[in-house]
Amino acid sequence: MAELERRFSANNMSMLHAVCALMPGSVNFLDADILQPMAAHNTRNIDDFNLDLRQVKRMIARKTTDNTMPDFDSKGDELLAFAKFVSKYDESFYELNRLIGIAVTLPAVAQPGFGGGGTGGLGNGSPPAGSRAEPLVSGSGAQPPESS
User: Fold this and answer.
1) End-to-end CA distance of the chain
2) What is the pTM of this model?
3) In the chain, where are the structural domains located?
4) Phi then psi dihedrals of residue 99, to 5 deg
5) How far apart are CA 29 and CA 20, in angstroms?
6) What is the mean pLDDT of the chain?
7) Which CA distances in Å does 70 have to 19, 47, 120?
């Protein structure tokens, strides 16, 4: 934990905790307090996000009671499995679906080497000691395509 605190700012740590709170099986799954910093930074309407969060919790409880809730226990893919589940209801849970989509892409964008060796703003630009992280974009100083 000390290594994470050394490498990441408090603001970025709150974003990482929020990503974890979007993973089924997490002790903080869909915890509104943990998700608020990420939601405030990435949603257009925080009130709609809070409503989405309350409603998806109710739907999950109902589906769990009815034994119609899908299993998200595929280790390593919990977030992606949950994203696919929520995307079926994207019109009903627009802000939550949008936030989950951002969370799913963070690990790819945060890879060392993306955008000229940075970490997408999530770290200090150097991979953890002993990691085998490969840059998403080969070559030094490569930049992702700009949108017009």
Assistant:
1) 40
2) 0.67
3) 2-109, 112-148
4) -65, -40
5) 7
6) 75
7) 20, 27, 32
